[in-house]
């Protein structure tokens, strides 16, 4: 069978027929049988048809989707039976599409069309990874190196390359079991050889996009997610030299008005903290196994580097930015309803993870400081000041209306209570934490009617008691977050709030144990009232419904 215009039109008719709700089942079955037979027996002919469909400027999205799925199927299932010149032909045609104006037409379609094209290239990278020269990966790297300035005529090509890198990293990490071990090692070796080239391009492009984030929002988001896909698995030493630059860059992206870019940059920040934490844990394990390593110069704490890192993440400006953009974006209930979206919720969830990771990082740092002799008193003072500011920030988050973020802040505080008790030997801190716990134990009851205010609600609004007014406003904010994720009061209580209170119970037990610690008891000799409050709080938790 050879390619003809009649065959091309017949394929288009069969595709449209199979997705047309008005056609009969027999017609759909005949169309699907024709397409399956063609795909199974004529791979080269199918690739020709696929490329011709991609070159059509008036095609429907469904035809683009079919052509790319057809091409991906050929690469995945027929690549090994193709001759070398046939493989090279498919590769040549695919790169012709990428480098031509046809790509702009494809990228005007929904996102799944762009993703399909990127996945075709990923499958080709996986298939020709054993070639010594002119691999698909090398060509992609050469293309991104050739993009020295972001313009309208190359932005789609750049976005496609970034998608390919991101999907390839996901294949090597998240979906690693789907790749043969030998093939995975070969791809990793290829990436490692060109890793410095790739990372330098990604950092340069990210920095360039910072000047035009609104004009290229989707491209910027893709770039940040691509960078994060490398951060998740590449060794820390590849980023160590430019760590400060990356921290500053991601924080700048975080301050932009786009919630999508805020979420993407937050993922990068979280990955950086994970990398740092993983390296510190590895160092401590090595020191435990070999005492000579612990005393060597290579294990010495770089105070200046630690100070820069902590200042980026725990500096007053950063904490204020988190508070302004995520924690207290508005005081208006109506504005909050508009702000609470999936992207906003995801950012708050990531902030919660971020807090727990930072707590672990600080505690690892204190553990390391306890085993070393540090002469830099300014550094020790700085660490204590930043930790105290962070603890105050956690106290502030205890009362956040999004319960999961509130829970994460309590979990972070519990880590300090268990592992670094001397930091909490402060009367005002204890009193504030007790007050927060008491407030957080109140169960939120859903209003019986959303359309009318109950007499009790009206009384609360008109009441001059500021505490009651504050409680009412807080409950209204909680409702907005709760109703966004849960359909009923029962669902919220059984799926989350019961667990929430259980976690608070663990914290209270740890907190009560704090007063029996020898290192803390001497500093809390005037806190008899706090102990009584704790016991009453514990009883309230056990007896509450």
From TrEMBL:
<dbReference type="GO" id="GO:0005634">
    <property type="term" value="C:nucleus"/>
</dbReference>
<dbReference type="GO" id="GO:0042565">
    <property type="term" value="C:RNA nuclear export complex"/>
</dbReference>
<protein>
    <recommendedName>
        <fullName>Importin N-terminal domain-containing protein</fullName>
    </recommendedName>
</protein>
<feature type="domain" description="Importin N-terminal">
    <location>
        <begin position="31"/>
        <end position="100"/>
    </location>
</feature>
<dbReference type="InterPro" id="IPR013598">
    <property type="entry name" value="Exportin-1/Importin-b-like"/>
</dbReference>
<dbReference type="GO" id="GO:0005737">
    <property type="term" value="C:cytoplasm"/>
</dbReference>
<dbReference type="Pfam" id="PF08389">
    <property type="entry name" value="Xpo1"/>
</dbReference>
<dbReference type="GO" id="GO:0003723">
    <property type="term" value="F:RNA binding"/>
</dbReference>
<dbReference type="GO" id="GO:0031267">
    <property type="term" value="F:small GTPase binding"/>
</dbReference>
<comment type="similarity">
    <text>Belongs to the exportin family.</text>
</comment>
<dbReference type="InterPro" id="IPR045065">
    <property type="entry name" value="XPO1/5"/>
</dbReference>
<dbReference type="GO" id="GO:0006405">
    <property type="term" value="P:RNA export from nucleus"/>
</dbReference>
<dbReference type="InterPro" id="IPR001494">
    <property type="entry name" value="Importin-beta_N"/>
</dbReference>
<dbReference type="InterPro" id="IPR011989">
    <property type="entry name" value="ARM-like"/>
</dbReference>
<dbReference type="GO" id="GO:0006611">
    <property type="term" value="P:protein export from nucleus"/>
</dbReference>
<dbReference type="InterPro" id="IPR016024">
    <property type="entry name" value="ARM-type_fold"/>
</dbReference>
<dbReference type="GO" id="GO:0005049">
    <property type="term" value="F:nuclear export signal receptor activity"/>
</dbReference>
């Amino acid at each position: 069978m050879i390619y003809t215009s009649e065959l091309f039109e017949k394929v288009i008719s069969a595709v449209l027929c199979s997705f047309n709700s008005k056609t009969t089942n027999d017609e759909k079955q005949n169309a699907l049988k024709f397409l399956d037979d063609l795909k199974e027996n004529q791979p080269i002919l199918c690739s020709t048809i696929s490329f011709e469909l991609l070159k059509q400027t008036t095609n429907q999205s469904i035809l683009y989707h079919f052509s790319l799925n057809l091409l991906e199927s050929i690469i995945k299932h027929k690549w090994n039976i193709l001759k070398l010149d046939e493989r090279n032909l498919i590769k040549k045609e695919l790169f012709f599409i990428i480098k031509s104006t046809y790509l702009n037409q494809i990228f005007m379609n929904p996102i799944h069309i762009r993703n399909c094209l990127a996945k075709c290239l990923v499958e080709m990278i996986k298939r020709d990874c054993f070639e010594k020269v002119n691999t698909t990966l090398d060509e992609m790297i050469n293309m991104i190196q050739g993009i020295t300035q972001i313009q309208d005529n190359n932005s789609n090509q750049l976005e496609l390359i970034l998608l390919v890198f991101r999907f390839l990293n996901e294949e090597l990490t998240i979906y690693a079991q789907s790749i043969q071990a030998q093939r995975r090692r070969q791809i990793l070796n290829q990436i490692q050889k060109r890793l410095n080239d790739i990372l330098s391009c990604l950092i340069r492009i990210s920095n360039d996009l910072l000047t035009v984030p609104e004009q290229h929002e989707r491209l910027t988001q893709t770039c940040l997610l691509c960078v994060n896909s490398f951060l998740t698995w590449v060794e820390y030493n590849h980023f160590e030299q430019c760590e400060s630059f990356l921290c500053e860059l991601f924080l700048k992206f975080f301050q932009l008005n786009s919630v999508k870019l805020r979420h993407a940059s937050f993922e990068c920040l979280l990955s950086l903290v994970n990398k740092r934490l993983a390296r510190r844990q590895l160092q401590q394990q090595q020191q435990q196994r070999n005492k000579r390593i612990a005393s060597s110069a290579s294990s010495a704490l770089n105070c200046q580097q630690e100070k820069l890192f902590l200042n980026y993440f725990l500096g007053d400006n950063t904490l204020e930015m988190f508070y302004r953009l995520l924690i207290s974006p508005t005081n208006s209930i109506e504005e909050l309803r508009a702000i609470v979206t999936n992207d906003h919720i995801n950012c708050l969830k990531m902030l919660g993870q971020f807090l727990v990771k930072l707590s672990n990082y600080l505690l690892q740092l204190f553990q390391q400081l306890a085993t070393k002799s540090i002469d830099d008193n300014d550094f020790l003072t700085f660490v204590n000041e930043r930790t105290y500011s962070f603890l105050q920030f956690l106290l502030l988050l205890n009362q956040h209306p999004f319960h999961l973020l509130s829970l994460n802040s309590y979990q972070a505080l519990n880590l300090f209570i268990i592992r670094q008790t001397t930091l909490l030997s402060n009367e005002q801190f204890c009193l504030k934490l007790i007050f927060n716990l008491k407030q957080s134990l109140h169960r939120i009851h859903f209003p019986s009617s959303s359309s009318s205010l109950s007499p009790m609600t009206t009384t609360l609004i008109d009441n001059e008691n500021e505490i009651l007014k504050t409680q009412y406003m807080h409950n209204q904010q909680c409702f907005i977050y709760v109703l966004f994720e849960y359909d009923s009061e029962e669902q919220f209580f059984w799926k989350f709030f019961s667990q929430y209170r259980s976690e608070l119970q663990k914290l209270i037990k740890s907190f009560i144990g704090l007063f029996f610690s020898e290192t803390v008891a001497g500093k809390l000799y005037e806190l008899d009232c706090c102990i009584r409050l704790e016991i009453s709080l514990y009883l309230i938790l056990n007896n509450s419904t």
